[in-house]
Amino acid sequence: MTAETTIVTSIAELRATLDAERAAGRSVGFVPTMGYLHDGHGSLIEAAAAANDVTFVSIFVNPLQFAPGEDLEAYPRDLEADAALSVAAGAALIFAPSVEEMYPEPILTSVHVNTVSDPLEGRHRPTHFDGVSTVVSKLFAIAGPCRAYFGEKDWQQLAIVRRMASDLSFPVEVVGCPIVREPDGLAMSSRNVYLTSEERTQALVLNQALRHGIELIEAGERDPDIVERVVSAMIETQPAAEIDYVGVVDAMTLLEPAPLAGEVRLLTATRFGKARLLDNMGVVVPD
Ligand code: PAF
After folding, report:
1. What is the pLDDT of residue 102?
2. With helix as H, strand as E and coil as C, how does the chain read?
């Protein structure tokens, strides 16, 4: 099978193909992406291919989730390399629609997931998650019954998509997959290509600072403000780092528990030059 033969660009053709697979008794795995795939996406595709009979990857740079002035035009794209990586990781099909196919006229519908969308990323990119929830709803409606795989690197996105799929009764099982890191600890991201080599070295502080924060909690710290201050101070030792947020929140509701309790997630978005990097780590706080 060549990469070219696997690419579908029309919604009707994708639906017909997936319906035929299900009618033949085969289960469908779905990995939604914006392309420029790396090994982190590869691990999602492998997980989907291992658990389902047929796996498809969507590649669509969704304009709705970019605010004016963000990197929509500059967002890296390489469909040929994406197709090769997807097929090598076990995908049978790639869905790569045009903007016109997805949004033939200006979309008047917007999906908003209350509460979970509001803090952290939601405060810094107020229109972002509605764009994500809207396109993921549309992709779920197109895909039909399936298992859909999302990376934990976008932890808040994963929590929102889980809640949305449950609230709106999509016939989709949302599966979260662990962050894939470079050997030196940097979380893999399509936006890492924006880093200069000096910024890339400095960005290693994110993994180190989050790990330190988790160790503080494991050692008994229960005040979220203290954890956030210590982690922020460590990130700020790097001159290129500009923190958007450091937060420690309940892993599912994204609300800040004080004192820390249950399953919590420590998250940051920090800019290094042109790259805005997300990273996070979790811990279950012992009673
Ligand atoms: O995580 C992403 O790549 C995107 O936000 C997603 C889920 C594919 C929606 O455009």
Report:
1. 98
2. CCCHHHEECCHHHHHHHHHHHHHCCCCEEEEEECCCCCHHHHHHHHHHHHHCCEEEEEECCCHHHCCCCCCCCCCCCCHHHHHHHHHHHCCCEEECCCHHHHCCCCCCCCCCCCCCCCCCHHHHCCCHHHHHHHHHHHHHHHHCCEEEEEEHHHHHHHHHHHHHHHHCCCCEEEEEECCCECCCCCECCHHHHHCCHHHHHHHCHHHHHHHHHHHHHHCCCCCHHHHHHHHHHHHCCCCCEEEEEEEEEECCCCCCCCCCCEEEEEEEEEEECCEEEEEEEEEEECC
